[in-house]
Amino acid sequence: MGKAKLNIWARDKNCRIIERTGLVRIYNCQEEEVFHDWVIRDGHAEVEMPPGCYIVKAGCFAGLGNIYTDRTMVVVRCGDEACVNLILPNFVERVGARGNPQPVKRNLLAVGGCAPTILLAFGVNALKKNIDPEDAIDKFIEVAEIDRGQMIAAIETEIKEISANIDEVRKDEIREFEEYKKALEKIKEIIGKKESSK
User: Fold this and answer.
1) If 0-12 CB within 10 Å is exposed, 13-18 middle and 19+ buried, where does residue 184 land?
2) Predicted confidence (pLDDT) per residue in 22-54, tens digit
3) If pLDDT is split at 50, 70 and 90, which confidence band does 194 have?
4) Model confidence, pTM
5) Are residues 79 and 119 in the same domain?
6) End-to-end Cα distance, the chain
7) Is the pLDDT of residue 168 over 60?
8) Secondary structure of residue 100 in the 3-state scheme
């Protein structure tokens, strides 16, 4: 007899398993984080923990950032195995041709699909360094062939997800998330100027 085993499952609000990669965060009852790792694969993770009482939650990648599950409490003794089911209430799925749940596919915003993520990182870092990113963002959008309207919609989704999950962020990370949200709003404003002038 030794450590306990937690089988952690990420599910949507209809209890279907979300076949995504994800982050598991485990806290003790003093709200101290005792585990933090990207161990969810295809909606499931197995984590060994010492016996005790824990609060468990997970974050799954969705679009430009993560969305977080509800949290649950689990109590385990030496050698126990516990099944922990976590619900991602904001995750949207559609049913595929074979009846299998599949994540909603977003339209590619640019050739290669990763340009919007790079653009956001580029813009956020420019703003942190007090560099006016407007000209550079315009050139990047043109070269990467990013649809401005779709990019604005993706940024709005990211801002909504941050706002909906801000209470799940560790206290020492809140300022960073707030700064990221402000940077996204600024980038959205820059992209929107040219979109509205079309």
Assistant:
1) buried
2) 889 999 988 899 999 989 998 899 999 999 999
3) low
4) 0.51
5) no
6) 68
7) yes
8) coil
Residue 19: give the domain boundaries: 4-95
| Structural domains in the chain (count) | 2
- The residue out of 61, 95, 129 marking a domain boundary is 95
CATH code, domain carrying 26: 2.60.40.1120
The answer to whether position 171 is within a domain reads yes
Q: How many CB atoms lie within 10 A of CB 102?
A: 13
Say if residue 134 is exposed, middle or buried (CB neighbours under 10 Å; 0-12, 13-18, 19+). Answer: middle
CB-based contacts of 83: which residues, under 8 Å, 6+ apart?
Answer: 7, 9
Determine how many CB atoms are found less than 10 A away from the CB of residue 165: 17
Question: Last residue of a domain, which of 65, 95, 125?
Answer: 95
